Amino acid sequence: MFPKGTKRKFLDSAEDAATATVAGEQGPASTRTPSPSYSLQRQSLLDMSLIKLQLCHMLVEPNLCRSVLIANTVRQIQEEMTQDGTWQIMTQALAAAQCPTDRLVATEVLCRQSDPAAAAAAGQSPKPYPLVGGLDRGYHSEEVVMEAGDAHKEALPTQSYLAGPFGMGPCWEEEQQQQEEEEEEDGGDEDGEESEGEDVDERPEVDSRPGEQVFGTFEIKQQPPPPPPPDPALEELFSDVDPSYYELDTVLTGMQSAPKMGPYDLLESLSSHGPQPLSPGASCRSDLNELDHIMEIIVGS
Amino acid sequence: ADVISTVEFNQTGDLLATGDKGGRVVIFQRETESEEVLETGDSGEYNVYSTFQSHEPDFDYLKSLEIEEKINKIKWLSQQNAAHFLLSTNDKTIKLWKVSERDKRPEGYNLKDEEGRLKDISTITSLQVPVLKPTDLMVEVRPRRVFSNGHTYHVNSISVNSDGETYLSADDLRINMWHLGITDRSFNIVDIKPANMEDLTEVITAAEFHPQHCHLFVYSSSKGTLRLCDMRSSALCDKHTKLFEEPEDPGSRSFFSEIISSVSDVKFSHNGRYLLTRDYLTAKVWDLNMDKGPVETYQVHEYLRSKLCSLYENDCIFDKFECVWNSSDSVIMTGAYNSFFQMFDRETGRGVTLEAWRESSKPRAVLRTRRVYTGGKRRRGDVGVDSLDFSKKILHMAWHPSENIIAIAATNNLYIFQDRVNPEAE
């Protein structure tokens, strides 16, 4: 069932080390710098969790229990990274970043580094990946049923699930507001977009707990276009991305060694699909950017 | 044959229902009067009694999502007349089915002939009284109620109340109470949906009514807590009457602590005094009078604790195992991987591993116990942890209500094991 090999054993032994580390060090966490192997393992767990949340089944509603448990895991990792000071470095550096596309690249660059300090020195910082995947999808589309009178949520198209895993979709606006608020909270002085002001009062008060950033800070694009109409070509595009975890397993275990053919094939097939479905305009081109971005993460370039 | 997704005995144990991923329900009936049974004194075997399509695949047009026809749970109602009733549910809709037998038909009508055509009156010279003649047994299954549109999220449990009139259905965030006769209304008794879905951190994983007290029910959560609710205290039971939670062991905390503490199944004991829960690595028995922690904890597959990262990677960590009591509440049983399942004797605390796998058990063969090798002296037949087949999961099972007969669902096979040494529960 598992691809047997050194990678899995590494993860398991690192997991043991991680468990031991977490267990043994209950002291002042903020002053403790995690060991590199622990950081690496924690980071790969974070990556894995985020990918799990994104690559959800598109036709059937994802399992809410599973999504919640994965999201809680992500939140827990981020809380710990905050205590370690790793997260602070990342968010402070992000505040200094100006260009959205820089942010995009920086995310992937930093997250591949095992040493957070070196990453901070690189002058850029990540915003974590879009967490919107199935989690928000499921919530917000269900909101349509439950709160029909809510004008904000009525804007959701029914095809939200198709767009979901890669961060597209009507919930951009909400996420952007979250992002705006979160950036303001960080005291960043970038002149990013103004908060839309729309339904801001519907958002919960900005929670200083870093855990809240899990849902608030994720987006890839700064300027959300109007929600794209359901596009069968896009479905076809996404259908190449196989959410089967067996493959994910193979892909993830290939991260450390030379990447296997799988991800590259995927990348190529995606770009070969490129020209056709991009006619709907800028939104799709940026979606392809997102796909490239995610593929780069998986490939580990 | 499709993957079996639920198994349930009725209250007498004569009927055994299974639901599968394709939305079909198969009911087995126990032989009672065959020659073999009478001669050998063996308890009867289970044979197919009826098969029907309970749920069809559906499509939610509003959300553009498929609704799976997989049967998540089946629960039998107590028998009140010659017919049997059962509730079956998929993710969204619950249905009440009536299972009835027809083995006689009237013959000898005066005005109609054998084929049902009207007779010519002039040919009738005498009157006869129609009589009921036996015919081949026909089992009819008809839907009597359809309880739809009660759930936004996926239904994970249904439980018939001891009052025989109501039942509850639980999805990830809400629990509804229905009356068996009313399909267009249900009463919401638990709602843990937060105002802002982004604050969601906990979902309902299972729920069950108390076997004797019609006002009590319990529900479990993904954070490993159990909540006992009394419907007499308030209409909306968001506030629990009792919260059962085991304090976390800080020494064993890891990133996976919460995931493996998520309760996948909760069952009241037959006597109504205990609760049995299953989380990823253990099965726990709780005393209803003690909410500080379980009174018994059984390690089902502790050897997986060091493999949690891999199991998270391949999603096995999210597998939901069921657990069951035996009829006298002295033994508990739950499933594991590699077609293994575990039985724990509560009095001795000892556990035994058994296997539900065709190649190692012929009909009427005695099950031999299995062992997973975790160190020490290796015995013949031991299975190494790395050799376990994680695709062979025993998730669903049932124990006969009064005898030592168990039904184990192994993917698309159903195994029925009987204890010949001690057929009756102690």
UniProtKB/TrEMBL annotation, chain B:
Keyword terms of this UniProt record: Repeat, WD repeat
Superkingdom as given in the UniProt entry: Eukaryota
Gene3D superfamilies: YVTN repeat-like/Quinoprotein amine dehydrogenase (2.130.10.10)
Name of the protein in its database record: Serine/threonine-protein phosphatase 2A 55 kDa regulatory subunit B
Xref: InterPro entries: PP2A_PR55 (IPR000009), WD40/YVTN_repeat-like_dom_sf (IPR015943), WD40_repeat_dom_sf (IPR036322), WD40_rpt (IPR001680)
GO cellular component: protein phosphatase type 2A complex
GO molecular function terms listed in the Swiss-Prot or TrEMBL record: protein phosphatase regulator activity
Subunit and interaction comment: PP2A consists of a common heterodimeric core enzyme, composed of a 36 kDa catalytic subunit (subunit C) and a 65 kDa constant regulatory subunit (PR65 or subunit A), that associates with a variety of regulatory subunits.
Family: Belongs to the phosphatase 2A regulatory subunit B family.
Protein's organism: Hippocampus comes
Alphabetized PANTHER family for the sequence: PROTEIN PHOSPHATASE PP2A REGULATORY SUBUNIT B
